[in-house]
Predict the structure.
Amino acid sequence: MGNPFFPVFIDISDKKILVVGAGQIAVRRVQTLLRFGADVTVIAPEAREEIRELAEKEIICWITKEFCDSDITEASENHWYMVLATTDKPEVNEQIVRVCRKKAILSNRSDKKEDCDFYFPSVTEVEGVVIGMNSGGTDPGRVKAVRQKIEKTFSVPSSVMEEKTCYTRKKYQNNLEDVSNGK
């Protein structure tokens, strides 16, 4: 296994992001991207209901066609900030990655982690803190379980969390005082 990927948080608001494919994986990724203000275009001849609804409401652009190289190569300079290959056809996903690399566009391939320039994280936001996590593509189920544990942990009423935080702070401060007093 190579080095783990470096976690980074970037501003994608108003960035043009292309998602090729419109199945369940695409739906989840589009919903996540929209939470952070991305300008999303989906290319797929057919789409799940969630994608169709977003397009009907003009929240995303859905181009109803098969992917071809010109969707990337003929786009204006710096048009796509990143591209997500989420089709159920490995040869199409491979083609997307190849074209993106020639154009120096970040790409993510949902069916082959070795072809990813970045991993699409599992994301949650609790108490104003955005948490992104991944397993390097090795165990998405574990990542989902950890995310759910975090969400469950932080869904405790804030008064209980404040009590726990105050207790932890006091315990920490007492330990510091003990250390500084030579105990």
In short: Helices lie at 24-35, 49-56, 70-73, 90-102, 140-153, 158-180. The CA atoms of residues 16 and 50 lie 20 Å apart. Confidence is low (pLDDT under 50) at residues 156-176. Strands lie at 16-20, 39-43, 61-63, 82-85, 106-109, 122-126, 129-133.
